[in-house]
Amino acid sequence: xxxxxxxxxxxxxxxxxxxxxxxxxxxxxxxxxxxxxxxxxxxxxxxxxxxxxxxxxxxxxxxxxxxxxxxxxxxxxxxxxxxxxxxxxxxxxxxxxxxxxxxxxxxxxxxxxxxxxxx
Length: 119
Known about the structure:
CATH superfamily of the domain at 44-112: Copper binding periplasmic protein CusF
Radius of gyration: 34 Å
CATH class of the domain at 44-112: Mainly Beta
Number of strands: 5
Largest sheet: 5 strands, mixed, barrel
Order of helices and strands: HEEEHEE
């Protein structure tokens, strides 16, 4: 019986200490928003082969991955360039071009490449 009394006394002492312990508060303020600085993606050049080109868009196939086909609309700068090229006959299927574009966007910012003579 003696050990039962000691066990009860220890248990009651532990319960009293646990009740008297201060409540721990969080170290992070969850009310203030976290500011994240977003960086703009840089435009990249795509080396490609023309599948089809007209006044509204150009459809190209990547040189590195022939199964990847992309379709681009023109920016104002590229539209002026493509109109001059179309007046001379335009790009033909198979012409090599470089297209400057923002990753994740379908607008061609600039187009470089020599068009071949029309058939």
